[in-house]
Amino acid sequence: MLKSILGCCKVYISESRNRSALESIERAAKLFPLAPIINKFEDVAYNRIGYTLVSELGSVPSSEPCHLTNCVLAMVKAAFDTIDFELHTGTHPRLGVVDHICFHPMADASLDQAARIARCLAMDMGSSLQVPTFLYGAAHEEGRTLDSIRRVFGYFKPNSSENQWIGGLKSDSMSMKPDSGPSQVTPSKGVLVIGATNWVDNYNVPLISSDISAIRRIAKRVSGRGGGLPSVQAMALAHGEGVIEVACNLLDPNKVGGERVQQEVESLAREEGISVGRGYFTDFSQEEIIKSYLKLIEERN
Fold first, then answer.
1. Does pTM top 0.85 for this prediction?
2. Annotation marks residue 140 as catalytic
3. What is the pLDDT of residue 63?
4. Taking Cα atoms as reference points, which of 157, 161, 118 lies closest to residue 141?
């Protein structure tokens, strides 16, 4: 009987146009069949890809290999070997070649288990790959938030015209001390953020407009930070010609889900006279991911 202590890891890499780089990353992942990729979401406009991996979790520390962290480490190494952050351009903010890694407990796993796995991976990343690594959420001793790290690095402000993020970080020195790795940034790699939280959904709503200021007003009013929907983080991101998305993190999707966000965006957009398209999730639901993983493992056995 398969244990139901599962960990999910989402790996966000700043690339979706370089096919050979993505193939190299996915080849590295295939060496760890006990931590399979359950889903991948590619976005050419954002020049970003998100991978969702799942595996059983053992105790940490343990003499048993952690298939999930070993797989992610191999994928990150492949990404650093094939992608140069200084050459990257896209309409999604990012801090490095590997922008963000997050662990979520699934089934009977605990958040503490996910946090321990995240901390172990961060130590490996910093030492073996020599990349400044920052922890957040349950993986950080003070529960530091992801967006607080991002704000320090100017993550939310485009560094080029047409709402593009181009090239690496502006400085190789940092105002924050990393939790692991060197205190200097390698421009071709950038920095890395690793965390552990309960489940988060990502839901994006396209608006038919080129008025980034208007969409930013809507995004601010949708977000909990701007007095809108609690547990929702939102930002306005250009997404192809004549389309700007309100891209949302739903930190407590059982309380505020995608449908509620859709309704709120549509209401606010009417005030601005802007047409709204149908929103979409960038990943399967937690239940669908577990089901897909169990089916895959059963087929392999």
1. yes
2. no
3. 47
4. 118
